[in-house]
Every structure is written in structure tokens, then in C-alpha cells.
Amino acid sequence: MNSFRLWVYLQTTPLFWLTATLAAFLIADGLARLARRNPLVNPVLISIALVATLLRLSGTDYQTYFNGAQFVHFLLGPATVALAIPLYRNLALVRRNLAPMAAALTVGAVIAILSSVAVAAALGAPRVVLISLAPKSVTAGVAMAVSEGLGGLPPLTAALVIATGIIGAIVVTPMMNALGIRDYAARGFAAGLASHGIGTARAFMVDPVAGVFAGIAMGLNAVVTPIVVPLILPFLAP
Amino acid sequence: MVRGFFWLLACQLAGEAMARGLGLPAPGPVIGLALMTLGLALWNRLYPISDSELAESEVGRASTGLLGSLSLLFVPAGVGVVQYFGLLREHGVALALALVISTVLTLAATVGVFVGVKRWIGAGEDRGA
Fold this sequence. Notes:
A: mainly alpha, 83% helix, B: mainly alpha
């Protein structure tokens, strides 16, 4: 078998794309480490760019890629359950923060929806785009279901959710430092509420307590946003 | 290792079953997270384990391993989304501004309310580990 045919064969196998996903992440994570975890050097964003470039150069479709990458994607579910262990280990801290969490959840969830839809509406985005945008702060599966239920475009919602996660992960650390917030429970909670799992991944990189509170906020917002969006959307996008 | 993964998957499975079966508003893995936390609380009542024992247990190590690479797990979905970036282009400026402004406002409002309420009820800061 010549090397071209070998490559043609390999790039259709799940093994190749699974390996490529891990390799892209190792490179991205290495760069983030070199940059001393500077938030601008976001490993998720760099990995996505590397893999997307490789797919384009090799002319591979997403389905072929996902046949391999699904093994990594699948772990998102157990990883969400795994948040229970740091949560349980910090239960005393969580109990002490119940009142601030409830208040921050309510205000944060409403602001996330209101502000995004208001800005996009003011700049002339059509109704279907506004619906797709409204649930952008919650985890992708839930946001797509909300968008679909109200007549939005689920793929657009998925793109907006991932972009929100990356923006939040990049912005949160410098912003909290500039605001002088040293309470890592509060910082983490904001990261998870505004930018779901990608914000939570960033929070775990910064501080274990921040990670725990980010995970809680992500879980709670996944429940609150689907309830709130249909209530306030009629006022914003009639 | 196997035992740790078994409990994570079992809780997720029970969570998915409850989400579908009872029509709960939360996604299956989030219900699994709640079930796992409850399970740990019950277990600890029957067979008290220390914090370090929990961290070193098979479930503890599986959890640490997964959460240590949480960023990696978003890559496949993120790559899928790149296909739809054409959808973003048409309203690119409006959407980019909406996302950045909204994310900054949401972070500020959430952290502001959290810290404000905490001060108001007289609890101290949690500086983390």
C-alpha cells in the first residue's frame, strides 16, 4: 500500500480522529502552560481551530471526524456527574452560600437573557436569531432544546453557546481581578452561570473552590433558563 | 478505576431515566450529579469516610481525572459548531457585540449580587484553597 492510499484509509478511521483530537488538545494545553495559563490562550479555542483546520485541509466531513471524537464527547455526561465529588467535599461551604447563590442565580439568569437579546435586537437582528440567542449561557444540549421549542435555529444556538463559553473563559479572570473580587465561590459561580461548562473548566484551572461553584451554577442555570426564556422573550421579541 | 466509572455511569443512567420518565426539566447528567451527591451523603452516614479517603477512592480518582481534562471534552462539539459559523456571519457584528456585552454584564451582575448578598447577611469571604 503506498503512503497516499494509507493516508486515505487512515483518515476515515475513528482511531485517527480520536488521536488527532487528543494531539490537538495536548498542543493547545502545552501552549496554555507556556503562557502560564494566560486566559487569552484558551485551550478549547486553540484545539477547535487546530482540528477544524486539519478537517478542512484533508477534506474530511464532520460525521467522519465525530465517529472518532464521539468517545471524548461521550465523557461530558460522566464528567458532569463527577462534579458531585468536589461538590460533596465542599458541602459545608456550599451550605453557607445558599442565599447568595439563590439571589445571584435569579439575577444572573435574567440578565444573561435580557442583555443578549436587547443588544442584538437594537442592532437589527431578526426574531429567529433573537430566539436562538436567548438561551446562550446554558449548556449546549439544553440551550438547543429551548431554541427549538420556541422556533429558533438549534445549530445557530449551539454555535452561540460555544462562543459564549469561550468568551466567558477568556474574560472572567482579568475581569474579576479588575473588580477586586477575591471570593472564589462568587467568581466561580459567575463563570459557570454565564458560560456553562467551558467557564467551569476554566474555573477548575484557577481554583478548586471556584470550580465547585461554577459546576453548581451551570447545573442550576440549566434548570432556570428554560423556564425564564419563554416568560420574558415575548416582551423582547414580540 | 472500573468501580469509579461504574458509579458515575450508573448515576448518569438513573438521571437520564428520571429526566425522561418523570419529565423533569433538568438534563439527565445534572440529575445524575444530584443523585451522586445524595448517594455520597447517605453512604457517609452509614460508613463514615474521611475527606482524604473519598479523594483517594476509585470514584474520587475517576472524578479528578475527568474534571482535570474537562476542557478537552468540549472539543468535538466545538469542532461541529465551526461548520455553522456561516450562520453567524450574516448578523456577525450584532451577535459578536451581543455575546461579549451580555457575557460581561452577566458575570458582573452575578458576582455583584453574590458578594453583595453575602456581605448583607454578614458572611465572610471564601478565598478558596
